[in-house]
Design a protein that fits this description.
Elements: E1 8-9, E2 12-13, H1 14-23, E3 32-35, H2 38-46, E4 50-53, H3 65-76, E5 82-85, H4 95-106, E6 112-119, E7 124-126, E8 132-134, E9 150-161, H5 162-168, E10 176-180, H6 192-204, H7 206-215
Parallel strand pairs: 3-4, 6-10
Antiparallel strand pairs: 1-2, 5-9, 6-9, 7-8
Length: about 220
């Protein structure tokens, strides 16, 4: 999806969902957008956040995010404290989620954290030679709810201590905690279908119906 980060999602450019979540979190005091797109940087400035021009060599399809984050920190002259990364392609979160994730670092002594959704899926993996292996005993298939849970890394939130990040050159390091989020947050935008789905979710907010349903005592078995 060309230019997906500025495509309108429920009436505003996709990336602005993330800047607003950061700006409205009690745990964040400096918000910046890194991009090689003049249009994105202009919109970021209009939104009141710091625009940082990403060098071309850090903006290729093959480039890792960590060097771009190091460039942001160097530009802002920040070497300590906490860093929160909110990828624009995972827009279903809240400012409170951001605050809660940072609390896992500040209040519980963790070095890094990232958002996940719990799963009881039957998973299969294909090796290079084409053979398959399963995450469960398929010869004695258990009930799904009996499986040990796995955790899907959703990409909504990454948070870590800055000193350790600059030392390890990775946003996940040291003593790591997972931040559990609800089912609806797992959808990331890579394709047009993903964009349509997230637009529908943010418009309809089905999680509010689930909360109301549970509050009224209609909990399913």
């Amino acid at each position: 999806m060309p230019n997906k980060n500025i495509r309108a999602l429920v009436g505003k450019p996709l990336f602005l969902w993330s800047t607003e979540h950061a700006t409205n979190s009690l745990a964040v005091d400096t918000v910046a957008v890194t991009s090689d797109s003049p249009e994105i940087l202009s919109l970021a400035k209009e939104a009141g956040v710091i625009p940082i021009l990403r060098p071309a060599e850090l903006a290729t399809d093959e480039a890792r995010l960590e060097p771009a984050l190091e460039h942001v920190l160097a530009t802002l002259c920040i070497t300590e404290g906490y860093m929160v990364v909110l990828p624009p392609t995972s827009p279903i979160r809240t400012p409170q989620d951001v605050t809660n994730a940072v609390a896992l670092l500040k209040d519980f002594g963790n070095d890094s954290t990232f958002s996940v959704v719990k799963s009881h899926a039957f998973l299969w993996e294909a090796s290079p030679d084409g053979s398959l292996s399963a995450s469960y005993d398929w010869k004695n298939r258990p009930n799904r709810q009996k499986l040990a849970p796995t955790f899907l890394e959703t990409g909504n939130i990454y948070a870590c201590g800055i000193e350790g990040f600059l030392r390890e050159h990775n946003r996940i390091y040291g003593r790591t905690a997972i931040y559990n989020m609800n089912y609806w947050t797992q959808f990331q935008i890579d394709t047009l279908e993903d964009f349509i789905l997230c637009d529908l979710l943010l418009t309809m907010k089905p999680w509010e119906s689930v909360e109301a349903f549970a509050t009224n005592g209609h909990k399913s078995g």
